[in-house]
Specification:
This protein is α+β, with helices and mostly antiparallel strands. It has 13 helices and 14 strands. 42% of the residues lie in helices and 18% in strands. The chain has a five-stranded antiparallel β-sheet with strand order 1-2-3-5-4, with helices on both faces. Helix 6 runs antiparallel to helix 7 and helix 10 runs antiparallel to helix 13.
């Protein structure tokens, strides 16, 4: 098996391990490795996974040799792989290198296992909290007290009292001077991504005219292909509470009156999907499952949805201003109102 090295390696240890794997498997070559029946390849990947490291997601396992194994519903995994290849081929944004995809069935589910290279670094949200925020006095002590009470036999009243104090404590403040290089990297990455020429039809779709996987208000479901007005109408149609519809329609009027550019959009830009290197610069962006051609405002509104109840991320993205100051205020106002009566929010 011949593994192609990622363009940037931040860890000499990972580099050496990968070189060992390359030396051991290069005789048959990667193409020959993939001739091996898929179930045998999957068994080998799972063998590596048992020697790997768990992550916050039960679907993702960190393997030895700087590799990652990710399980997905089959459709989602194939879409994520295609999107990742597309970004790698058409931009300079660092993304994982997809090495193999093995479709399989388990418990009557159609799944796939995706082997890819690892982006070395910390997720943005963890990186910020690891030394790039100023916490209000006493907040760290309150959090430690809460942890102790959660695992003690003390009554719930004491825990509720501490939780109330935490709720009334001002949020941490991001040290923006530490983030200047990262913000510059992100602005350049998204300027490049949004400069990609859209399909001639200008429709909302995935690559090759497939549906996009919209992750909104707790649901992940296919949408499109459709024109942008049909997309806006479909989002609006998800709203419940009939008594709110007149007000929602008023908010929708300026949004529907605009013809938006269609841009290639990540559409799930949570802190967990932006990787930061040891040097504080952008190491990569991962998890392109929901990416596709959307109206230009969709990245901003989905970022806001990811920031609900996350004041540190809100401060960071407000400072980053990936789309300029006060971008898409009408669209955001409509989305805020729709979130209040849609899905699981």
């Amino acid at each position: 098996m011949f593994l192609l090295l990622p363009s940037k390696l931040h860890s000499h240890a990972t580099y050496n391990q990968t070189q060992v794997l390359l030396a051991a498997l290069s005789r048959c070559g990667w193409a020959l490795w993939k001739i091996i029946p898929s179930m045998l390849r999957l068994r080998f990947y799972r063998f590596l996974a048992r020697r790997g490291t768990a992550t916050a997601s039960r679907r993702v396992k960190l393997l030895p040799f700087g590799l990652v194994l990710k399980y997905n519903p089959r459709r989602n995994g194939l879409i994520e792989a295609d999107n990742t290849h597309f970004v790698a081929d058409h931009t300079r944004i660092p993304v994982p290198q997809i090495l193999d995809i093995v479709p399989f069935s388990e418990y009557n589910e159609q799944l796939c296992a995706m082997l890819m290279t690892r982006i070395e670094g910390q997720p943005l949200d963890q990186w910020l909290f690891a030394g790039h925020v100023i916490r209000p006095p006493g907040s760290a002590e309150l959090i430690e007290e809460m942890k102790m009470l959660m695992y003690s036999d003390t009554g719930s009243d004491a825990l509720l009292e501490v939780l109330a104090k935490i709720k009334n404590t001002p949020p941490p403040t991001v040290i923006l001077s530490d983030c200047e290089g990262l913000i510059a990297d992100l602005r350049a990455a998204f300027q490049e991504l949004r400069s990609l020429p859209p399909p001639a039809s200008g429709i909302v779709s995935g690559l090759s005219g497939r549906p996009v996987l919209s992750r909104r208000c707790g649901d992940t479901k296919p949408m499109g292909p459709c024109d942008q007005q049909e997309f806006k109408d479909a989002i609006f149609a998800q709203a419940g509470f009939q008594h709110r519809l007149p007000g929602l329609r008023r908010l929708a009027e300026p949004v529907n009156a605009k013809v938006h550019q269609v841009c290639f959009t990540h559409a799930d830009l949570a802190g967990r999907n932006v990787m930061v290197g040891k040097d504080g610069r952008l190491a990569g962006i991962i998890d392109w499952e929901t990416a596709g051609w959307y109206p230009e405002y969709w990245e901003r509104t989905m970022m806001e949805f990811q920031m609900l109840h996350e004041p540190v991320m809100q401060q960071f993205w407000d400072a980053a201003q990936l789309f300029g100051p006060d971008a898409y205020e009408d669209e955001l106002a409509l989305e805020w109102a729709l979130w209040g009566c849609t899905g699981t929010t």
